[in-house]
Amino acid sequence: MSTTRFSTVRAAKEYLAGRISEQAERGGSPLTELERKMLYFSETDWTLPDMMKVSEEFDRDYDHDEYEEKIRGLVSRLLAAEDQQAVEAWDEAVVKISDGDHYLQVLISNTPSNPMELPGLLRKLGPWLPDLNAPISRRPGDRVRLIVSAFAILALPFLFRLLLDRVFGPDWYGNMAHFLR
Fold first, then answer.
1. What is the DSSP letter of 136?
2. Are 71 and 34 in contact (CB under 8 A)?
3. Distance between CA atoms of 126 and 118, rounded to whole angstroms?
4. CA–CA separation, 76 vs 113, rounded Å?
5. pLDDT (tens digit, 9 = 90+) per residue, 11-29?
6. Would you tell me how many other CB atoms lie within 10 Å of the CB of residue 173?
7. Is pTM, for the whole model, over 0.90?
8. What is d(CA 180, CA 129) in angstroms, rounded to the nearest whole number?
């Protein structure tokens, strides 16, 4: 899968927001202008020029939990009805915005690409399970810390045995077995 379809975060956001808006219209309850603009919200990355005003109005007039649930429902229905090519385009757009800090990521993060793939219990547990499709970002030195930790854990039994040999003498194990009989 190539990620050349969306060369900018803006293009990816416009694609995702457009698809969500289309789904809302098909479902008979189109998004309000404010709801549609909130799909572009970001505190640190590209967003609409009037986003601060939009955000203040949204915070005053809307319930965040209801809005997030509404968008997740739209995304679930949208992806359930899409063909493989459309889902791939969706996934490419999500990957493009995944490096930034976008409200749209929060809105769609707990929605599987195909909701029918998850059995009922797993669908309910979905928000608490790790997202295996999420890009992994590691801090510098994580691999070295992992290797050092693994060696330390493997060395603990040997160090413990050396300590016991020092304290109780080299034949401590045989003496203990005799003592326990």
1. P
2. no
3. 9
4. 8
5. 999 999 999 999 999 989 8
6. 13
7. no
8. 48
